[in-house]
Design brief:
The complex is a heterotrimer of chains A (about 350), B (about 260) and C (about 300). With about 260 residues, chain B is α/β, with parallel strands linked by helices. Chain B has 10 helices and 10 strands. Chain C has about 300 residues and is mostly helical. Chain C is globular, with a radius of gyration of 19 Å. Classes of the chains: A mainly alpha (about 350), B alpha/beta (about 260), C mainly alpha (about 300). The interface between A and C is large, with 44 and 41 residues.
Chain lengths: ~350, ~260, ~300
């Protein structure tokens, strides 16, 4: 094998995914506005799901918390980048400190603040969280999601409570969203190919051995946890500067279900699975939505989109529990050595 | 018409192979157990002994091969159905129901028999045989000592009125004196009720004393099989157990598989 | 003093509701290692069965207008059917699956049920008056106790007694407890797996039915996510009490109800909205300090 082939083989999954994502984004060129929106939304979801995957896929622990981190990132970004009408900010969010109230910062700052906020929170609670394993950890992550929802839903001076923050400058379109998706795919790939990723996956597959090397596992988990939270937070920031409007209700059970569904459909254990899962689910839900509005083959009753997604998820769990890609990444087909006669 | 002689074969296993994923635990194993006999499978840890018993009891399905109990195929049947047919399994590790009392543990097993008065008599008899269980009758099974728990799981298995009793490593983790008690008891039941026994053990000496037939299992295959008295002398047993003999002739009459 | 007693009864009443819900969840976890996220949706199904299916804003009462006994029977049958069907069509195929897969499947199932209800009944909350005769008060001196709360508490006590009798005095109850301790071993002793599991779902459904009727009477409102509200706290209760322990679920439910009520009553008004955050925070703390819960029965870790 030449050096080039060797290199290609080692980064093949990330390459394939990049090509896939860029191709998908090209669909939005020259297409209607709604197609561009669908693509952008899909890309932000890819970021969130890849964030989820970084933790779930490598550690083997299912987390319900990551939309909570996306919320933290989304609101942090909004605090910095809002609003298109400057005088509105002090009215909406009187609790914010002055340097935020009187300024609207560019998107990059929002992105950074999202990463720092979600990463910071993840680090603090992570120190406690990584001591838990299995179901206990999953339940604790669910509690975390509920805490974020409860806190953000009531902290009116800073989050507008259960109503929305609007007038967030919309700067994220298909281009930026795709760049974001491609970046996080490489980040996730780098992590899982690194020593930390390997060790974490080893602990996932061999829990007994993992338990006897206790401290190291916790260390790895914390890294994955914080990294995944940062990525999820960035997803939240992209979302907030794409939608232009933010409500805490959008970051609770429905989105949590959606992201977990996407990951499950594609396969919890591979990065390719995570991305493919999002793309497939987006295709399915978009088609179902089109059928609901009667523009397509036939008219479906309202609500079929969600029901359809739930049913598909159950079917996948029964028939192909490792997801569509069966837990594998995209790989370069191996060339067989010539058969001996 | 000449009536067929009654079959002596109670359990007949033919060429079963069992895998866990890609790991083959048992390979082409054949085994037969006569009615009223005591058959023992010996072998080191990981040889596949537990897997065989689990397959008979219905907990694992062999990839191929046949298992027949009293002439009927039991492969693929549910564990609870196999229990109702007359096979009782005592897995290793003393699986008492810890939150149930001794009484409830025994009572549970009687449900498959559906003979309430008969079962109460059975329970009385078993409590006579295992006086320590009578003492602890109303205590949670989780609080019993290791030896008491072992007696409980055997008594419990007997409450189902089995024709074939499968016991996986009864001596594991028990003091030698208790192990002897347990074996005496099993022998007594064999004599009184014609109970057929299939037992797994790691240690061979004690077991050879009262076994009729011995199978040696190593790495998933049977290495040696024969009547116990003949294998008591000579070295084939330990050779087969520890692996220095593969397939070579010997003066005694054990048969090599 | 009067305020304290009223809060106490309020707390016990809420705790009873959570205890019943937690019991429904704990029962299934003990036998199947299933954390049934759809349990809240069974509660919602029970509540919505009281009205005629329609998305209109006004409610036409259906079963809700029947006499007490047929009403209770009908709702119970419907909810138990929902529970049994969810086993038949979803969980039965996942018998040997990892608990995490089961959890995600129940999550998906709950999502489906919720959206089916949404599609049939619309998303607008509907009002319904069930058993208005229970809205009166029992007045003792300075203390005003809502009759409804006393009914909730006493119904719960009765149901718990019945369940205990069932589990400890009947043959099927013993089988269920054995299956909960060691499912495979129970099967080796002749306990029929499908039967015991079906029984668990049925009882879980009965408990959900009780919660739904009591909840509707209490709040007078139907909404597609109403079950979720209760079940979120019920999960906490199960975790606090120790997953797999029924006594723990009950104690946990009472503890959560009492904590919630007392926090609500005695927290300063500014902090009240954050009551939930406190509660969930306590859960996480508890999980770290004592992962097996208050009532230490069996660990949820797999044994090596």
């Amino acid at each position: 094998m030449t050096k080039l082939t060797k290199l290609a083989r080692s980064i093949w999954p990330a390459l394939v995914l990049t090509v896939l994502l860029v191709a998908a984004s090209l669909l939005s060129l020259g297409a209607s506005g709604s197609t561009a929106e669908i693509i952008t939304e899909m890309m932000t979801r890819i970021v969130m799901v890849v964030g989820l995957y970084i933790f779930v896929g490598n550690s083997g622990i299912l987390s319900y918390a990551h939309i909570g981190f996306a919320a933290i990132g989304a609101y942090a970004s909004a605090w910095f980048t809002c609003c298109t009408l400057p005088m509105v900010k002090p009215l909406y969010l009187p609790g914010l400190p002055d340097f935020l109230l009187n300024n609207a910062y560019p998107f990059e700052v929002g992105l950074l603040s999202a990463a720092v906020a979600s990463g910071g929170v993840a680090f603090v609670i992570g120190i406690i969280f990584v001591r838990l394993a299995g179901i206990a950890a999953s339940i604790a992550s669910f509690a975390f999601l509920a805490i974020v929802y409860a806190v953000y839903g009531n902290w009116e001076s800073v989050t507008a409570g259960t109503s929305s923050i609007s007038n967030i400058p919309v700067v994220v379109g298909p281009g930026i969203a795709t760049m974001g998706a491609v970046c996080v795919v490489w980040v996730a790939f780098a992590f899982q190919s690194s020593r930390y990723g390997f060790m974490l996956r080893a602990s996932r597959d061999e829990p007994v051995a993992a338990r006897s090397s206790g401290v190291r596992v916790r260390h790895m988990r914390l890294i994955a946890w914080v990294l995944s939270a940062v990525v999820a937070g960035i997803g939240g920031a992209l979302y907030s500067s794409f939608m232009g409007i933010l409500t805490i209700d959008n970051f609770y059970l429905t989105l949590t279900f959606l992201t977990i569904a996407m990951l499950t459909v594609g396969g919890l254990q591979s990065l390719s699975g995570a991305v493919v899962g999002v793309i497939c689910v987006t295709i399915v839900t978009t088609s179902l939505r089109a059928m609901e509005s009667g523009n397509w083959l036939f008219q479906l009753p309202k609500g079929m989109q969600e029901i359809g997604l739930g049913v598909i998820m159950i079917l996948i769990l029964i028939f192909r529990p490792k997801g569509l890609l069966n837990g594998r990444e995209f790989t370069l087909p191996k060339r067989r050595p010539p058969q001996k006669a | 018409m000449i009536p067929e002689p009654p079959t002596r074969l109670l359990l007949d296993i033919g060429d079963i192979s069992i895998s866990y994923g890609r790991l083959t635990a048992v390979r082409d194993v054949s085994l037969s157990v006569d009615k009223g006999s005591v058959t023992v499978i010996v072998g080191p840890n990981g040889a596949g002994k537990s897997t065989i018993l689990q397959a008979i009891a219905g907990g694992i399905r062999p990839a191929n091969g046949r298992i027949e109990f009293d002439g009927e195929t039991i492969v693929g049947r549910r564990p609870e159905d196999i229990a109702a047919s007359g096979i009782s399994f005592v897995p290793e590790g003393r699986h008492v129901f810890p939150t149930l009392t001794v009484r409830e543990n025994l009572l549970l097993a009687s449900h498959v028999v559906r003979d309430k008065s008969g079962s109460s008599r059975d329970m009385e008899r078993l409590l006579d045989l295992f006086p320590r269980l009578r003492e602890r009758f109303s205590q949670s099974a989780g609080k019993l000592s290791g030896g008491e728990q072992q007696m409980l799981v055997i008594a419990r298995a007997l409450m189902t009125r089995p024709r074939l009793l499968l016991v996986d490593e009864p001596s594991l983790g028990l003091a030698p004196k208790i192990v002897d008690e347990v074996y005496q008891l099993l022998l007594k039941l064999r004599q009184e009720q014609g109970l057929t026994l299939l037992i797994n053990e790691q240690t061979s000496k004690r077991v050879l004393k009262f076994a009729d037939t011995v199978y040696v299992l190593r790495d998933g295959s049977i290495r040696l099989k024969g009547p116990a008295e003949q294998l008591r002398v000579g070295t084939e047993l330990s050779d087969a157990y520890f692996g220095s003999a593969s397939h070579h002739e010997s003066g005694t009459e054990g048969s090599y598989i | 003093m009067a305020y304290f007693i009223q809060t106490l009864i309020d707390a016990l009443s809420l705790g009873s509701l959570y205890a019943l819900a937690a019991l429904g969840i704990g029962l299934l976890f003990g036998i199947l290692r299933l954390i049934n996220f759809a349990h809240g949706d069974y509660i919602t199904i029970g509540a919505y069965s009281l009205i005629v299916p329609s998305t209109a804003a006004t409610t036409t009462v259906f079963i809700g207008g029947w006499h007490t006994v047929p009403l209770i029977l009908a709702v119970c049958i419907i909810v138990v059917a929902a529970a049994l069907l969810s086993d038949r069509f979803v969980f039965r195929f996942l018998r040997r699956s990892h608990p995490a897969t089961l959890m995600v499947a129940s999550f998906a199932l709950g999502y489906v049920i919720q959206n089916v209800i949404l599609a049939i009944y619309g998303s607008r909350p509907k009002s319904i008056g069930l058993w208005p005769q229970l809205s009166r008060f029992l007045v003792i001196g300075e203390i005003r106790l809502p009759i409804l709360q006393l009914v909730v508490i006493s119904s719960t006590i009765i149901l718990l007694l019945l369940l205990t009798l069932f589990l400890y005095r009947t043959r099927f109850g013993i089988q269920m407890r054995a299956a909960s301790d060691d499912f495979m071993m129970a099967r080796y002793l002749g306990v029929r797996a499908d039967f015991v599991i079906g029984l668990a779902f049925a009882i879980s459904g009965l408990l959900a039915c009780a919660v739904s009727l009591l909840l509707v009477t209490q709040t007078g409102v139907l909404s597609p996510t109403m079950g979720l509200g209760v079940v979120l706290y019920a999960f906490i209760a199960t975790v606090i009490g120790g997953m797999g322990s029924l006594t723990g679920s009950v104690l946990g439910g009472v503890a959560v109800g009492m904590a919630s009520s007392f926090l609500q009553a005695y927290l300063p008004p500014d902090a009240r909205p954050f009551r939930d955050a406190f509660l969930f925070g306590l859960v996480v703390l508890l999980l770290v300090v004592r992962p097996s819960g208050l009532v230490k029965v069996k660990g949820i870790e797999e044994r090596v």
